[in-house]
Write a structure and sequence with these properties.
Shape: globular
Helix content: 55-70%
Radius of gyration: 20 Å
Distance between the termini: 38 Å
Largest sheet: 3 strands, antiparallel
Structural class: mainly alpha
Number of strands: 3
């Protein structure tokens, strides 16, 4: 097998996107820290507030996280008493809703999120952010297609 000159390969898409995701997550985490929240906790709480009683599978779909990560994050939120389980008729499924404490922590976090969001948008510039959104959407689509590839046509074209 011939040697590959890695210096001539394009920059790894995965590594680049991960670096950006980690960097922006750190910015938002630091901004939300005075409220005692991480950006993921804030996102999950906002998701539950926006959708009312929300199942674990809905959260995994909205946040694009695996079941184990979502379950672990929800356990932390439940331990903080920011969310509480909802009894469902199908006992195999779990759903959560915000508690009074959850609404209070969101109320503390929202102005912090708004400020960091404005700062981020100002740093990026409206034109660059507008140009970036479709690229991010295509990356998400790529991940969805790779996770759920189209099924091969069972019928022959002949």
């Amino acid at each position: 097998m011939p040697e590959v000159d890695s210096t001539k390969l394009p920059v790894c898409v995965c590594a680049s996107v991960r670096q950006v995701a980690r960097a922006i997550t750190q910015v938002y985490d630091e901004a939300l820290q005075p409220a005692g929240l991480t950006s993921m906790q804030f996102f999950i709480l906002m998701t539950i507030r926006g959708h009312g009683e929300t199942s674990v599978s809905q959260i995994t779909a909205y946040a694009r996280m695996d079941q184990t990560t979502a379950t672990r994050a929800l356990q932390i939120l439940e331990k903080q008493r920011w969310i509480e389980p909802v009894l469902l008729t199908d006992r195999r499924k779990r759903a959560f809703r915000l508690t009074r404490l959850g609404r209070a922590v969101l109320k503390r976090g929202e102005p912090l999120w708004t400020k960091v969001q404005i700062d981020a948008l100002e740093a990026l510039g409206e034109q660059d952010w507008t140009a970036t959104k479709p690229i991010l959407s295509r990356i998400l689509t790529l991940a969805s297609v790779r996770k759920n590839p189209p099924k091969a046509n069972a019928q022959s074209d002949s």
